[in-house]
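[retry 2/3] E2 ubiquitin-conjugating enzyme: previous attempt timed out, resubmitting with same input.
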Amino acid sequence: MQSIACFCFPSQNSNVENLPPQVLRLVYKEVSALAADPPEGIKIYPSEEDITELHTSIEGPEGTPFAGGIFRMRLVLGKDFPAVPPKGYFLTKIFHPNVGHKGEICVNVLKRDWKAELGLRHVLLTIKCLLIHPNPESALNEEAGRLLLEDYAEYESRARLLTEIHAMGGPGGTSGTHQDPNDGPQPKKHAGDPTKRAGPSAAAAPAPLGNGASTANSSSNTNSSSNTSVAGKKKADKKRALRRL
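[retry 2/3] E2 ubiquitin-conjugating enzyme: success.
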């Protein structure tokens, strides 16, 4: 069973401090039950800091333009709850007659049909059913309501498009995109060839070494010839001295 931390640290807009302790205990009990056994296709994300704001996600029902999407929403319990119904908001953008441009949800159970004994589970199930059976007569999104009545194919196309963009495949509907191998900086041509990478000046570098070697050899040969001449002269002088004797 999923546990919920103590709600001793309310957020700035929290109503925890405004609700009577007995109401808080009832809310805590119901949220705990929802987290342990949520309705089919609905996940519950209780807040550890504020029990009066319940975050959930709803799977788009099959056979609707919302199928395959995951729609995040939240329920906010006011200071007069449960005498006054909670307020519901879609956090995921959706094209639906009963969802306003700011995500506000218009459904009878959150208005005139509300009863304190209905509970949060009933509210979540009603909102899920709203994805299957929109009510154009109480439309917050007038364009979606008009298309639903006059051109269902266009309504379905628009609703499906926004589902694919905002409720499928992560933020923006672009997750899993593979990077093209040609994108990004490419290695320079001949980068693996040391002679071409070094350039003409480096290619000509061995020439000075060759000239230096020739000069060294020439100098060595000159010194060798000079030494031979000196030795020959000494030998000739020695022969002349022996003849005089």
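[retry 2/3] E2 ubiquitin-conjugating enzyme: Residues 206-244 form the longest helix (39 residues).
[retry 2/3] clearing retry counter.
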